[in-house]
Amino acid sequence: MKALKRIVLVLFVLSALVVGAAGWWAWSGYQRFAGAPLPGVEAGDIVMVERGDNLLRVVARLRGQGIDAGHDLEWRVLARQLGADSRIQVGEYALEPGITATRLLENMRDGKVVRHRFTIVEGWNIRELRAALGRATPLVQTLHEIDDAALMAMLGREGVHPEGRFLPETYAYDRGDTDVDLLKRAADDLDRALDAAWQARADDLPIDTPEEALVLASIVEKETGIAEERPMIAGVFTRRLRMGMRLQTDPTVIYGMGADFDGNIRRRDLTADTPYNTYTRDGLPPTPIAMVGAHALRAATQPEETDALYFVAVGDGSGRHVFSPTLESHNAAVRQYVQRYRERHGPR
Fold it and tell me: Is 151 exposed, middle or buried (0-12, 13-18, 19+ CB in 10 A)?
């Protein structure tokens, strides 16, 4: 009997050792799975979590992309450990080399999706904006056969001209967002920026509405890319409006020419009357001529007080301008500009 007891005891100990070794082996394997980079991931890989997906469906998608995703049981245990078993969020997730199952599950649990970006550039017109949107990926394209009027109606702005109605900024978006989604945000942002600028406007401006401020700001935007010059340029146009003097600004003429503009503006263009020709018509043009940044809006509503009535480019490639109070001094500045231009580029 004693021999039998010894045998049973030995078998029990051996069994416990085997179970313990198996448990240690399984735990070690799980630890390796949780903390080691997922094999097969390459730079630029992504995984999508679609609406209605559960964890194992996403794991199967990983395997379908050639990624060694381990065993389902390991994913279940890790998800429960991380509190992610029923909390993975819809979206696009980056799979960069070196990413672990733990990091991926944490990202899906916390909704750390890939954010794409699209920049609306100050000074773009609506044609340029729509063309750039059409090239943006993975933004969902819906505007191919929708004209500007229909677009503005979709945005809740029926009858509003689209020019200047979208705030230049860099907008983050998720895969699955549409071009209209992005434009709705940009239009709302422009409304807020315009309202803030109008509320903070200077006294005794020669403009009566936020719409006129937007039009003036668009001219300022097109006249200079130098931020510190914008209040001065706005000041010149404000002074002209107060005096009843025509604005005589080339960007409005160019806008009125539309597709006929070939990169050069000629004397006949300055005399050809259009609603946007501020050489032939008094006051502001009927609509903005470009997308307007917050700095140009501020300049239009808080212009610099100045005695200048004219400005012309310096001509040295800096983009800066010379401001003059009289036509005589302006003509002298123009001659200097022409001379510098010829020195840099040769005869015109």
Answer: buried
